[in-house]
Design goal:
Blueprint (H helix, E strand, L loop, with lengths): L4 H24 L6 H26 L1 H31 L4 H32 L3 H19 L11 H9 L12 E4 L2 E4 L1 H25 L5 H13 L1 H7 L10 H23 L19 H29 L2
Helix pairs in contact: 1-4, 1-8, 2-3, 2-9, 3-7, 3-8, 3-10, 3-11, 4-7, 4-8, 5-10, 6-7, 7-10, 10-11
Amino acid sequence: MHVSPLVWWLTIGITSALLLFDVIVIGRRPHEPTRREVTLALAVFIGLAVAFGIGVWLVSGQKYGTEFFAGWLTEYSLSVDNLFIFLIIMSRFGVPRAFQQSALLIGIVIALVMRGVFIAVGAAAINNFSWVFYLFGLFLIWTAMKLAREGAHDGGEYEQNGLITWVEKRLPATSQWHGTKSFVSINGRRLITPMFIVVIALGTTDLLFALDSIPAIYGLTKEPYLVMTANIFALMGLRQLYFLIGGLLERLVYLSYGLAVLLGFIGVKLILHALHGNELPFVNGGHHVGWAPDIPIWVSLTVIVGVLAITTVLSLIRSGVTQDSGR
């Protein structure tokens, strides 16, 4: 897939403009968004993602269009899992509802920048070290097993990372909220506010989730442009999704199991792809034999859609039965 520098810069420029517009609008009027507001915005972002995928399909062919949709759906489903932790962070730090939208937006901007670095590093590693597919594959399988063991309790705990602990102990801070400001001057001293700590917590937490999601999407496409745009579209609708389905998240009791199946499938796909095209040095004298099957992208997309649909339906059925029995 050939992507000119002009297309790269246009994509980055348009994305930055959308985010800047969001920052300006929300920054002027911090508020808890209405259901109509978040539904409309989420519909626009999903519509843009679908239109972009169709555009890739028409311009670059079915293969790359399918890769984008598979990558976008995978990133979106993993992002939904992130929302469990985001809810806990908001509760842990007592973020007022009117300020949560601003905190999420700034956290997402930080996450996009850091994911961009991850994507660039991943692309360089894949281009120069073909055996990295084995590492990605094994890591995803290990993560899938970990998710499956944790099951429905996966989103129940938030472990504060070392950076947040260091910030709270070392930087002068105030415990009072000052709107959406991250810094404030009191008696001549410049202090960080709770908003600063929350934003860092959201951004660094998403970075930890990227350790799973970036290898996963590279298992579906090796095109850095598609990896980047899939992540952009998944994260751009995350803020609206947070407010729209916050209560529904508790009903997705089988989400961790579904994500475990997805990550395990993609991990196996990565290893098979590596065996198909890049043999281990000690296999057949290091010569290419290509005995392993290479799973087509349409099969991957079918598995992703099927697993997400089954997981959602079974979760809602289980939640409905539990609620009925509790009455």
